[in-house]
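Protocol step 4 of 6: structure prediction from sequence.
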Amino acid sequence: MSGRQGGKAKPLKAPKKVKAVLDDEDHAFKEKQKKEAAERKALAEQAKQKGPLTGGGIKKSGKK
């Protein structure tokens, strides 16, 4: 038993990813997605500050 025969096998290297070429439409779409995500995050933060929407109103009992 010489070398690495009994040991753990070394994982194979993954091929390098080829970067996709983006044109103007793709850039515009990516920017639009980033902007919408930022707006959604801002709205979520705003909603957290106001507190829960439920909790008020008439509570009904189980009795009739």
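Step 5 (inspection) to follow. The chain has a mean pLDDT of 80.
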